[in-house]
Specification:
Oligomer: single chain
Order of helices and strands: HHHHHHHHHHHHHH
CATH topology of the largest domain: Serine Threonine Protein Phosphatase 5, Tetratricopeptide repeat
Number of domains: 2
Largest sheet: none
Structural class: mainly alpha
CATH superfamily of the largest domain: Tetratricopeptide repeat domain
Number of strands: 0
Number of helices: 14
Amino acid sequence: MSSCTNESLGHLIAFYETGQLSEKEKITFEIHLLDCDFCRNELQQMTTTFDLMHEHRTSILQALGTTDAKPLLHPKEVKQPIFSRLKEFILKIFNALAQPEFAVASVVTILFASFLLTLENAPPSSPFTDLLKFEKAPYNSQVLRSSEAEPGAQQFKSGMSYYLNDDFGNAALQLEKAVASEPENGVYRLYSGVCYFLQRQGDPAIDALLKAVNLNEDVLQNRSRWYLAQAYLLKADTARAREQLEILSAEQLEYSSEAEELLCQLDD
């Protein structure tokens, strides 16, 4: 078999190997594997790559300048969003290529990481993906309703620096720290949810944005509703998405016109 029998499912292979699929997506992909020799072969090669990375773990950690005690990029232990982690990883690997003991692992890893990065914009399984607007929520630090003295302020500031540079993986990590320090801060919850949504991570986006809707008021509440509605559509939950969109449409404030347009598209 020289090519995948169903490319719309085949693109999920890297997400499957790194534990990024939902249970339903995992089952769908495994059914696909039964009929696709190409993807079975690709999966075997990827497993070999992971094994090689673990075999050279010590050299990898030395080259990265880290003392992390856990295996790097293990499919069952990936905590940082995969693409953000890989981008950082590749940059550090290029600086480590001169180390002879790292040569084998670095070459294999760069090839594998490059393959994964080509899938960064692969569409998720939601049938509503084409209707969604994966755009950053506006942010202006000058009007932020918080002070440097608040518990999570420094983590939030760090997270938003990543956010403004479109590094949503690292932004989410810092914003989660800010939320842990100050769980009732609606601004922290809002931008945390937006970061997850922009990474196509529906469940954590919904969790953060639901709290943001309840904690915020006025403009920030409307903004939270808009991204919450889209996160619901990312999970194909049209009923809850419509509920949020109808509230926005009735308010005639920020995102009201976008909500009306999206409701019309859902009705078509």
